[in-house]
Design a protein that fits this description.
- By secondary structure, the protein is α/β, with parallel strands linked by helices.
- The chain has a single domain, classed as TIM Barrel, CATH 3.20.20.
- It has 10 helices and 16 strands.
- Strands 5-6-8-11-12-13-14-15 form an 8-stranded parallel beta barrel, surrounded by 7 helices.
- The longest helix has 20 residues.
- InterPro entries: Aldolase_TIM, OxRdtase_FMN_N, YqjM-like.
- It holds the Pfam family Oxidored_FMN.
- Keywords: Flavoprotein, FMN, NADP, Oxidoreductase.
Length: about 400
């Protein structure tokens, strides 16, 4: 891997073999299970559980459910688990049941989850977020389903915000355009959230800049109709997200990695690598990634879509990998690939082809929390199971 990434591959052989991994193959250890170091953090493999909203908090507080949920992944040996989108202010929640980090009171419950992850040698990460114009929605399995919450339901329908007074669609709230002073206050809230995450013991921080939420709202001309210094040209649309990234990097410890998740395209043009110069496309994403790298961001977590309703997505196996590949090589920055990556051999191929540096496996981990163990078995690697589960491991001992 290029030294420009500030990463160091750790070859699992001889004295460098981590206690939890040994290869049973005479061939080189698969990249998926080759440790890698970034700054102060060593990842025992390249498998990451990405942030997936659980909509199970009250007033932003994590609880026993989250301890069990995240702990179940940590027991099965992925390198890192990213705790779900966690709001930097109360009105920045997607739903009334999102997790939050806008108060110092949120630190202790978060630390409980962090301690569980770290107790199993798993890197603890969190995604800090603001839902922007897609805030204040009900949860699909709760009464009323996915709808714009009323105040009687615990919502804030008149306090949803975005770059412009442009609703996502007819069932979302009409947002208020943020003033310049409000933008400055929000930058500080992101920085404060990063400080709290560090106090909770988080190893890796991710800024959520994707899926039609606030930072993505500013990036895309499809949702940003401002005529001031925060709208119009690409330089102007990048301004607020970069101010947030810079403020976070300034308070986040320099020895700890910083990730950013972005949507590589809005899919206004159905071609995944197509042009949408007035909206948002992969070419603008590359410029954004270059600017983030200059600020000190270490990894771009590449997703797509979420900013426009009624868009046809080219959904299929590995469909977002071309975006990761383009950003990785054009911006010369490490990337994470996500999106219907379900088979270990496909994950390994992505790494071998240098289309990404990390593999984020989301819903497949919900279906199979032991996906890392399955991947090891299929790729011919012996991964040390936790002692309590070792008697169930049918792989031959070394």
């Amino acid at each position: 891997m290029s030294s420009n990434y500030l990463f160091q591959s750790v070859q699992p052989q001889g004295a460098n073999v981590p206690a939890e991994i040994n290869s049973i193959s005479t061939e080189e250890t698969p990249k998926l299970f080759t440790p890698i170091t970034c700054k102060s953090v060593t990842f025992r493999n390249r498998i990451v559980v990405p942030p997936m909203c659980m909509y199970s908090s009250t007033d932003g507080f994590l609880n026993d459910y989250h301890v069990a949920h995240y702990g179940s992944f940590a027991l099965k040996r992925p390198a890192m688990v990213i705790i779900e989108a966690t709001a930097v202010e109360a009105r920045g929640r997607i739903s009334a049941h999102d997790s939050g980090i806008w108060s110092d009171d949120h630190i202790a419950p978060l630390r409980r989850v962090v301690n569980v992850l770290k107790s199993q040698g798993t890197v603890a990460a969190i995604q800090i977020a603001h839902a922007g114009r897609k805030a204040n929605m009900g949860t699909s399995w709760m009464p009323g389903g996915y709808h714009n919450l009323s105040e009687q339901e615990g919502g804030w329908p008149t306090d949803v915000v975005g770059p412009s007074e442009l609703a996502f669609d007819e069932i979302h709230a009409n947002p208020n355009a943020l003033s310049i002073s409000e933008l400055k206050d929000l930058v500080q809230k992101w920085a404060d959230a990063a400080i709290r995450a560090n106090k909770a013991g988080i190893d890796v921080l991710e800024i959520h800049s994707a899926h039609g939420y606030l930072l993505h709202n500013f990036l895309s001309g499809n949702s940003n109709k401002r005529t001031d210094q925060y709208g119009g040209s690409l330089e102007n649309r990048l301004r607020f997200p970069l101010e947030v990234a810079r403020a976070v990097r300034n308070v986040w410890p320099q020895e700890k990695p910083l990730w950013v998740r972005l949507s590589g395209t809005d899919f206004e043009n159905p071609e995944i690598l197509g042009h949408d110069e007035t909206g948002w496309d992969v070419y603008q994403s590359i410029e954004y990634a270059k600017a983030l790298k200059e600020i000190g961001v270490d990894v771009i977590d590449v997703s797509s879509g979420g900013n426009l309703p009624n868009v046809k997505y080219p959904v299929g196996k590995l469909y977002q990998v071309p975006l990761s590949n383009a950003i990785k090589h054009k911006a010369n920055i490490a990337t994470g690939a996500v999106g219907i990556i379900t088979e270990p051999k496909e994950a390994e191929e992505i790494l071998q082809k240098e289309e990404a540096d990390f593999i984020l496996v989301g819903r497949e981990h919900l279906r199979d929390p032991a996906w890392t163990n399955r991947a090891a078995s299929e790729l011919g690697v012996h991964v040390k199971w936790i002692n309590q589960y070792e008697r169930a491991n049918r792989r031959p001992k070394l």
